[in-house]
Amino acid sequence: MSVRALWIITHEKGESVAVQFSRRYPTVEHRAKFLAGSLYVTVPEDGAVLQLLLTELGLSDPDKPYMALRDDCFHQQHSPALELHVEGPGGGVLWPMLAISQGPLILACLPLVDAPAESRPPLASLFSVSQGLTLLAGLQAFLLGSKGKPDSEGLASRLAMMPFILLQVCPLGTPLDIPQPGASTAPAVPTPAGTQKQPAWKTGLHRGRAVVNVALTEMVRSMQYGNQSRQDLWDVYGTVTCKCEVEGVLPNVTVTLTLPPNGSPLLDVQVHPCVSSLDASILTATSVEDCDSSAFSGPYKFPFSPPLEPFRLCSYTSQVPVPPILGTYQLKEEDNQLCLTVSLKLHESVKNGFEYCEAHLPFFNRNQMGNVNVKVTSGQLDVSKEKNLLVWVIGQKFPKSREVSLEGAVGFSGQLPGPTDPLCTDLTAYIKVRFFLSCVYIGGATIAK
């Protein structure tokens, strides 16, 4: 449920009428236009809405002359859901305009109805109507205060808080909560300093101790063919994620990545829209072209104004001299079974201590596995015949030689077909090695403290 627009009006027995506050939500209005199609009715300016509301509520004239659209016996008014008849180009009927009044206050909102414009579902069946009335009642209780009759100063101070209140309870036109009637008249969030305006996407502000959490994660993407006609490919894909709790409307935070003296430059850098400025040479370095030895090598500074929720600050790729694990994989078919030979070697520059390390050997376009006679020099082997999959759990460490191997034969005598893959036909197959190292960055990038 969403609200297209909201108004707060003050009056004194129908006189001294003024719109004290209004808020429109363009994204919700765009949805309303899409849903209504050719029957879409534009929400007029605040002055026109004010006159239409006063007329419908019978407050436009002390004498209250008869109006057929409002006072005819055949007109069934479903208060507080009103009809506003808009004249002129793009005119029509705005429905349901929800309006509640108490004392000098009139609160009105126009909820979005997710139904065809030509049909009017019963009001009781529209969730947007009940949500809109709840929002108006909550705002009314907040503005009137605990006594139900606000003084001019109290009302003025609460009206000044409405932009901040709506950011909390109705961000982007979607009611999430109602303000507490006993809330203090002082702003619950710091008032923006100077001319800074709080972004619409930032639904609240943090108060308290500043905390910035930054995490750097790297994933090695390697394809080794074991064939001189095909060049092996590998790179490192890194992401930096942040969760910032910092006071202020648009606080400035800077995260810096550094490289060792002989580190490879970061390539294909992509950043979050909240990053305010960046050296142009950082964005122009790509892995598509040959990497220039004189390319920018840091430090990489990312100044930004963070959102409240966790987000990905940037991503990058990095070229490394060799992959962390080198491997060979050989297949030979004999008598309806495959003879396997696998060898994996951990590079000497990589720490020999994993959270986990395992190799997956899938087999496609064959019947389900039958007899499996495979031995490993380290770790253990799990067999999933239904999936035609061997899972080699190497463990948390390679042996001192930093080499492990697997050898044996697998038969496919099952009656049911196994999984298929259009690329892995005949003896075309692959091994997927998965491992996790904590506090080790293959690409060399580290977060400066």
TrEMBL record:
It is a peripheral membrane protein. It comes from the Eukaryota. The keyword NAD does not apply. GO terms for cellular component: AP-type membrane coat adaptor complex; cytosol; late endosome membrane; lysosomal membrane. PROSITE patterns: MHD. Residues 209-449 form the MHD domain. InterPro entries: AP2_Mu_C_sf, AP5M1, MHD. Keywords: Membrane, Protein transport, Transport. Probably part of the adaptor protein complex 5 (AP-5) a tetramer composed of AP5B1, AP5M1, AP5S1 and AP5Z1. PANTHER family: AP-5 COMPLEX SUBUNIT MU-1. This is AP-5 complex subunit mu-1. It comes from Esox lucius (Northern pike).
